[in-house]
Amino acid sequence: MQTVEGAIEASIAQSAIIEKQGQKRIFKIIVIGDSNVGKTCLTFRFCSGKFPDKTEATIGVDFREKVVKVENETLKLQLWDTAGQERFRKSMIPHYYRNVHAVVFVYDVTKTSSFDNLTHWISECNQHKLGEGIPRILVGNKCDDQRNAVVPTNTAQRFADNHNMPLFETSAKDDSESDHVEAIFMTLAHKLRSSRPMMPPTSNRNSLNMSRNNSQSDQNLRCCF
Ligand SMILES: Nc1nc2c(ncn2[C@@H]2O[C@H](COP(=O)(O)OP(=O)(O)OP(=O)(O)O)[C@@H](O)[C@H]2O)c(=O)[nH]1
Ligand SMILES: [Mg+2]
């Protein structure tokens, strides 16, 4: 397995080429929330257009990338699919929040505790002093499971309003919601396009160990530690 350091160096080198050629700006988007809310499935749906056949708890972080076009500009969205389980994320937390350009908070509409815990996720985010202008959005996932839905939309909307975030309720699983998942991330891409330039300084990018995970697609990178 290639070391994380080797992979990040390759990634930095590649980014430098991109920067030199002036082809694309790169945006780092972190996806956070309780374990099992569907962060991996949502990012997989957006990047691959499918619901994954099976998922396991994320360890550390999985990287997914998608190149999108926004008003004639080609952007690269680098999604950091973080681990919800404390034991799988603890040592990674500083890496998650370094040079972040946008944050996606996810809860499960069928699990009240995942909604209640949003205050914890927001406070962790605030502790890392992200800039004021960093876009944040709230996503309620698993809307296909209406029978078990327990978080009312109006409660979630009030919470989102209080935290100055737009709320989206969707489903990573339901194929008919695929366009909606795409639209959610594209909304973010539009916001990011009009914000600051997006090349993380290399000095902050060299302490992570990454290796390419060939098991899913070559758009995916996994971080080991
Ligand atoms: N019904 C339904 N199930 C979903 C949906 N999205 C994910 N799931 C299921 O929820 C479980 C957890 O999904 P993951 O995407 O692995 O959850 P996660 O948030 O990445 O979890 P961690 O990696 O542990 O933080 C899996 O069994 C998925 O099949 C959805 O939209 N609807
Ligand atoms: Mg996951």
UniProtKB/TrEMBL annotation:
Chloroplast listed as a keyword: no
Cofactor(s) annotated in UniProt: Mg(2+)
Bilayer topology term: Lipid-anchor
Enzyme class: hydrolase
GO molecular function, one term: G protein activity
Annotated GO CC locations: Golgi apparatus
Keyword S-adenosyl-L-methionine: no
A UniProt-annotated Pfam family: Ras
Record's keyword terms, sorted: GTP-binding, Hydrolase, Lipoprotein, Membrane, Methylation, Nucleotide-binding, Prenylation
Any one biological process term the GO annotation gives: Rab protein signal transduction
UniProt-listed Enzyme Commission number(s): 3.6.5.2
Major subcellular site: membrane
Bias (Low complexity) ranges: 203-217
CDD domains xref list: Rab33B_Rab33A
Catalysed reactions, as listed in the record: GTP + H2O = GDP + phosphate + H(+)
SMART domains xref list: RAB, RAN, RAS, RHO
Family statement drawn from the similarity comment of this UniProt entry: Belongs to the small GTPase superfamily. Rab family.
Protein name: small monomeric GTPase
Organism per entry: Dimorphilus gyrociliatus
